[in-house]
Records
---
Amino acid sequence: MLNLHKAEFIRSAVKPSDFPSDGLPQIVFAGKSNVGKSSTINKILNRRNFARVGGQPGKTIHINFFSIDQQVYFVDLPGYGYAKVSKAERDRWGRLLETYFASDKITLGFQIVDIRHKPTADDKVMADWFLSTGKPFVVIANKWDKIKKSELEPNVACIRQTLLLPEEVPVIPFSAEKGSGREDVLALIEAHAAAFAAEHTTPSV
Ligand code: GDP
């Protein structure tokens, strides 16, 4: 089991040499600005102000690395899709993300989308990036508390269809506000950490 109390900020990366390279799993969180990415990370860790909530959208073009129990990293990618961002900033975002994806360090990807809406063109690009890594990929459909019960199934189907998700990619309804879906996300993270630990344990003789 991961001790979620042992979560600490490691660094903000702006270039490849800043990316941790100790071989521990890197669990990546991506999402459009304001989708609730920081809130989701905080809810998973049961913290209030760990990842920063409601910061200036689009202003943080760096990748934040957190160590969880010295067993895995949580990687907070800069949000995308904020309208008021300059072309230069958008380009910087693209270059940094491309460099990180090319570094082949991602071991599990989470993309956070808004359960109320059809995913955007940017969401599609992001999902394709994750799918092209060939690593396990999961979509978190956040703000579940904002829809009616009857909307759940059609909205999840719309997300699957729009992002062209293969069957093996789960879509997990989630509410960073209420905590619903937290156990499902946590179970995937625990399983990922456990599988890695099992692979890296030296057999006793
Ligand atoms: P980020 O830009 O993706 O990191 O988004 P934030 O975590 O800062 O959240 C953006 C806004 O959405 C904040 O006002 C949050 O309180 C709100 N929010 C995030 N998740 C939820 C959710 O599940 N339900 C509701 N109702 N509001 C949410």
---
Amino acid sequence: MDIVRTVVELRSHVSAWRKDGLTISLVPTMGSLHAGHLSLMKVGKEKSDKVIASIFVNPLQFAPDEDFETYPREENCDILKLVEEGVDLLFAPNVNEMYRQNSKTTINVGGLTDCLCALSRPGFFDGVATVVTKLLLQALPDIAIFGEKDYQQLLVIKRFTTDLDIPVEIVGAPTIREKDGLALSSRNIYLDPKSRSIAPSMFSILSQHASNISNGSDIKKSLKLARQNMHDLGFDKIDYLDLRNSQTLETCSDLKRPSRLFAAAWLGSTRLIDNLTVT
Ligand code: AMP
């Protein structure tokens, strides 16, 4: 696997592959790779001839009080995992390469960013949309793959690539979980043993209430009970636990359109998110 740190080197690999008529997938990540990230690389390998992974801890998507400085960075380990996965190229730029001096442009997506994670993380989606736009324009892949674990992010990325006519297919891939149901996340290492034992109950509560709602339980009552269950099991603060339209993220009062349950909650200083479809 080649490793490049500049846009010029990235483009030179891409144009050589293009000359050979090869198709290309891009998998953007912030590193500290786990089986969830690697599942996206596998999708890339299935869908295209060449896979580029990027690792960039994007300062633009962290609020001043968030963990940009301490976010886990494990590039050597990540490289071994990517090689094992058969990834063809790692693009790992530094902050100056990504945001040159005097960089003044950000991407703001309307509609989808006035709810859920946007409320507790102002500026987060602008940061994500800006860096993903740049990565897509730098690499110009045929396909870019993102996890449904960050479902709102996936919708935002689909929205702006459509709105900006960026010629790429955005592919969503299912959430990979620990055996006990906890969605894999680079931040799970922050959980102390007690929090780690509570964390999987986010998924079990969502699953239970998704099934109750599918079976006809009153939606408002189920959501209230689910929030209560999370409090009772030890979650410190619930940012949201909502049933939303899977495409528009508007709140749902029935199951006439495809819907998902979304939750974000805190265990100590760690914020967990999860979502699942309600059939
Ligand atoms: P991150 O490094 O957290 O920015 O994530 C990079 C990509 O991996 C994003 O598209 C995430 O949605 C995806 N991802 C993170 N966790 C998981 C997971 N447990 N299962 C599948 N995809 C994931």
